[in-house]
Specification:
Helix content is about 25%, strand content about 40%. With about 140 residues, the chain is of the alpha+beta class. It has a single domain (about 5-140), classed as Roll (Thiol Ester Dehydrase, Chain A). The longest helix is centred in the N-terminal third of the chain and has 16 residues, at about 5-20. It is globular, with a radius of gyration of 15 Å.
């Protein structure tokens, strides 16, 4: 059964997606949203491929960044990235289905630490993203 915080988290993501044209362009689909957590997916398209025949690194980064944003804004307070880093252990190819799972690792009144794993349709880790966020006093609603 969903608790109130998880219901709020879903409303937050619905609100964010109304004006998030970039996430729409990526073709992001929501799998699961909970307080401090998100799981989303997308399929890599031809226009996302670089000159070496693999997905541009910004594609996996952007998917992870969206998962990060959905997870860290889940309480309705506008939250922004302070620091992020990413590693790419495996190349991403056209038509790969990518699933990003963002999990809260640590939280204070003002900051949060999140790890986001991106795996392909074969459950292979293709990117690992770490993000630190800062929570403002501004409400999303």
């Amino acid at each position: 059964m969903n608790n109130e915080k998880d219901i709020l988290a879903k409303k937050v993501v619905e609100r964010m997606l109304k004006t998030d044209e970039f996430s729409k362009w990526l073709g992001i689909e929501i799998i699961e949203i909970k307080e401090g957590y998100s799981k989303i997916k997308m399929t890599v398209r031809k226009e996302m491929i670089n000159g070496f025949g693999t997905a541009h690194g910004g594609i996996a980064f952007s998917l992870a960044d969206s998962a990060f944003a959905f997870a860290c804004n889940s309480d309705g307070k506008i939250t922004v990235a302070l620091d992020v880093s990413i590693s790419y252990p495996k190349a991403v190819k056209e038509y790969d289905e990518l699933i990003a799972e963002a999990k809260q690792v640590n939280k204070t009144n003002r900051t949060g630490l999140y790890l986001i794993e991106i795996k392909n349709q074969h459950n292979e880790l293709v990117a690992l993203f770490k993000g630190t966020c800062y929570k403002t006093e501004k409400s999303l609603f």
